[in-house]
Amino acid sequence: MKIYTRGGDTGQTSLIGARTAKDDVRVEAYGAVDELNSFVGQAISVLDDRCADLKEHLIEIQHELFDCGADLSLAKQGTRPYRVHAEMTKRLEELIDRYDAECPEIRRFILPGGTQGSALLHVCRTVCRRAERRIVTLARQQSINEEIRRYINRLSDFFFVAARVVNVRAGIGDVEYIRSEEVFRAKGDSNS
């Protein structure tokens, strides 16, 4: 099989079931998800053995991001069963709760950084938010698998907690945004 086809030389690309412009809103959405997947791979490559469990979860997320891309690349919805489903989002919520339990409570915004792995997971978080914005734009114009929106929204929360866990396991504390007031309430505060 040849890697190049010359089919996109005129600025067109293939969706599942149609051809469209390479800058089509649907292509932008699944392209942002693909970009996110690459950053996840980069984060995995720098994590050490203290994060072996996290690496396994990140590899599973890479597969799920391919599932998101496959669903987003459907030119016509309903031509095949969706790959992204509610159980995937529920699993992310369980992982968020599990990893968050390892982290100290936060009161202020934190700056991305610490270890290289943590910094890269913050990059994943922000690229995930961009992918989410592209998906929201697409959903306003065309039909999509709505579970993708929920999954991607939860995924950015997962990356935030994962970034914090990497630092915790390395013995590095959060760097608080010092110009911030306390914006998060501690668990158990009466106004929570």
Automatic annotation (TrEMBL):
<dbReference type="Pfam" id="PF01923">
    <property type="entry name" value="Cob_adeno_trans"/>
</dbReference>
<keyword id="KW-0169">Cobalamin biosynthesis</keyword>
<feature type="domain" description="Cobalamin adenosyltransferase-like">
    <location>
        <begin position="3"/>
        <end position="166"/>
    </location>
</feature>
<comment type="subunit">
    <text>Homotrimer.</text>
</comment>
<dbReference type="InterPro" id="IPR016030">
    <property type="entry name" value="CblAdoTrfase-like"/>
</dbReference>
<protein>
    <recommendedName>
        <fullName>Corrinoid adenosyltransferase</fullName>
        <ecNumber>2.5.1.17</ecNumber>
    </recommendedName>
</protein>
<comment type="similarity">
    <text>Belongs to the Cob(I)alamin adenosyltransferase family.</text>
</comment>
<dbReference type="GO" id="GO:0009236">
    <property type="term" value="P:cobalamin biosynthetic process"/>
</dbReference>
<dbReference type="GO" id="GO:0005524">
    <property type="term" value="F:ATP binding"/>
</dbReference>
<comment type="pathway">
    <text>Cofactor biosynthesis; adenosylcobalamin biosynthesis; adenosylcobalamin from cob(II)yrinate a,c-diamide: step 2/7.</text>
</comment>
<dbReference type="InterPro" id="IPR036451">
    <property type="entry name" value="CblAdoTrfase-like_sf"/>
</dbReference>
<keyword id="KW-0547">Nucleotide-binding</keyword>
<dbReference type="InterPro" id="IPR029499">
    <property type="entry name" value="PduO-typ"/>
</dbReference>
<keyword id="KW-0067">ATP-binding</keyword>
<keyword id="KW-0808">Transferase</keyword>
<dbReference type="GO" id="GO:0008817">
    <property type="term" value="F:corrinoid adenosyltransferase activity"/>
</dbReference>
